[in-house]
Amino acid sequence: MEEMTGIPVVSFFIALGIFLALLLSIAGFYYFRHRSRQKYPYGKWESILKRLSSVDRGNVALIALDLIDKRGSRSVDTEESDLDPSQIWPLIGGMAGLEAMERNCAVLVDLVFYVQQWYPGALPITEQLRLNAREIQWHVSRLKAAETTGKLDALFPDYAQRAIATYYLMTRCVLDLYDRGNLPGFVDLQRELG
Amino acid sequence: MHASPVELLFWAAGFLGHCVLLLVLWVRHRAGTFPFFTAFIGADVVRSIALFAVAHHGTKHNYLVAYVSLAILDLLLQLCVTYELASHVFRPMGTWAPDVRRGFANLVIAGVLVAACLTCMPTPPSKALWSSILGRANLFSSALLCELFVGMIAFSVKAALPWKTHCARIAQGLGFYSLVGIVTAAGHGVIGMVRTSTLSHELTLIREMTYLTCLSYWIVMLWRHAPRPRDLPEEMRTQLLILHSSLEYDLERLRLWKR
Lengths: 194, 259
Prior knowledge:
The complex is a heterodimer of chains A (194) and B (259).
Chain A: H1 7-39, H2 45-50, H3 57-67, H4 85-92, H5 94-116, H6 123-149, H7 152-180, H8 186-193
Helix pairs in contact in A: 3-7, 4-5, 4-7, 5-6, 5-7, 6-7, 7-8
Chain B: H1 5-27, H2 35-57, H3 60-90, H4 98-119, H5 129-158, H6 165-191, H7 198-223, H8 234-258
Helix pairs in contact in B: 1-2, 1-7, 2-3, 3-5, 3-6, 4-5, 5-6, 6-7
């Protein structure tokens, strides 16, 4: 056995140990991820809520209600809008704010989809929110393209306010669903979206 | 070549286990679903008989040649089994998902490189050169198979693709055997497969006992039926049918519009 001692054997077994530890860690990580997905197939409600990015709710409401009323109908006095397009950009936080809003759309869909697992009647709302999310995504992508070509000023009034108004209606819709259904988590949700 | 009673016992248990497993695969109609796995088990039966015959009637050199040739065949078949399991998991409807296919190809390349690096790491030269080479070759195959199985687990979890019951059981058995095989092969790579060495003999016994355990596990699991999948609720089935016909209609309209 004396030939087994020495640096090469030690380094060989250290490398082997690291290799095995890495293999087992990766396998363990994915195994527990799989188990967690089996346990919570639709995700944990708290973790869905945590994914909401910070968007100034007051400013969102201000911009949206300038275009629509609380039920989503177009405001009668739209022609006499109080907000100038140049004011909307800083109020929403620029392109970063719009992107945060776009990310939140996916969370809103997930929040309603979560409810749908126990209340299948929520299916039309989920589908409507999916369509709204797609619409916002489309508006934001047009604005991003306009930003790269230097035409943002011309397109911003058309797309940004409509996207923000749709987002506002989505948040109202989710809150309304949780409120009417008397669902747990409404208070937390109102704190985040209300 | 003289075989000890323990070696004969392991040989007999392995041979019997393989025959029973082949019978299970045939009786339960699993051979059509897992042709490479069936070929792998069939080759092990042939290997057991061939090595036993050569050990009793051939020279030491004949045995070495037969052992190496059959070990290469064994490795190739194990890789085929891995591919078979991967295709069961990643192309359940007959087509590979493009991102998974590329990822799997990268995994194979990375796996071969890492296993080769591990196998080529310097250790003090063993007195028994051939047995040391065989140990290293076993280390390479075990490390590669382990990497492939871990990679497959990762890809399947990421892509949310389920492992069907029998496929998962075959992978678990082969994966566990490969994991133990890394340790025993590493030991053999350093000290060589020397029949006179107690440590080498114990490592061989551990590997063979692990293999027999996996063989028993496969026999039981492949004999048992997979749990019946839950039926789709009628309401959901109707919804899916409506969605399917609506998609077909939209697709037809899109095709007409494209023309």
